[in-house]
Specification:
about 240 residues; mainly alpha; two-stranded antiparallel sheet; 2 strands; about 5% strand; globular
């Protein structure tokens, strides 16, 4: 496996698409056909090689949450289009918008994101987020977190890995037993998180200016890429 690549590219049929279309098509594939990339064989090879695979931990797409951020950026900075154009798309598909199941609504949202009209309308946001979307499923984005913590990360920390690292640092005495009682400094070094932990300024607040948040996402992308290269060098 070439770990310089997004791990979705293990699927050769998806590898040919641009990062956003590839992400949406990946999310439409049942997990039985293509397991989550942070839990695939190639990812576990890295966890085992780096001695990250402790029984108290489980994988998480930690520094990257591409779909979450794509939807939030589009919704927060142009909610009217995000809601109304999607509704029109659903109706054009002869679906009953009011009675969509959650899974069907999600599947149609993935399809909507691939429409030329959606890509054109959100071209500024999407073009700026493409590098992040690509990096979000590289090994440099993945981390091992306490079992069950992934849902908490989603709900309490808005899928923001930088916020989680800040929480970890301030509550390390309650968390360190999951990581064999490492000091926080040892934890950062073992999991190549020194740079991410030093950039608390990269927490995303959607009340902030769009360009400021896009700049933060570009800098977060570089952190993921830097970590990715460090991991590759250690293998």
């Amino acid at each position: 496996m070439d770990y310089n690549l997004n791990l979705i590219c293990e699927n050769k049929k998806l590898c040919i698409f641009d990062p956003i279309t590839r992400l949406m098509m990946y999310r439409r594939i049942p997990s039985k056909q293509m397991i989550d990339r942070d839990r695939c064989e190639a990812a576990y090879y890295v966890y085992d090689r780096l001695d990250w695979n402790l029984k108290s931990l489980e994988p998480d797409t930690f520094l990257g949450s591409p779909y979450n951020y794509l939807t939030n950026f589009c919704r927060k900075y142009d909610k009217k289009y995000y809601v109304e154009d999607y509704k029109d798309f659903v109706i054009r598909k002869n679906e009953d918008y009011a009675f969509l199941t959650k899974s069907r609504a999600q599947d149609l949202r993935y399809e909507w994101f691939c429409l030329k009209s959606t890509i054109v309308h959100y071209s500024y946001i999407l073009s700026n987020l493409i590098p992040y979307v690509d990096a979000g499923h590289k090994i440099g984005s993945f981390h091992m977190v306490p079992k069950g913590f992934g849902q908490k990360k989603c709900c309490k920390f808005k899928e923001d890995g930088i916020r989680v690292l800040d929480f970890f640092e301030h509550n390390w005495n309650d968390i360190k037993h999951f990581y064999n009682n490492l000091s926080f400094s040892e934890y950062k070094e073992k999991y190549f998180l020194e740079e991410a932990c030093s950039r608390k300024d990269l927490m995303i607040d959607f009340k902030d200016d769009l360009d400021l948040n896009l700049k933060k996402m570009n800098e977060l992308t570089q952190i993921i890429e830097n970590r990715n290269q460090r991991i590759i060098n250690r293998l």
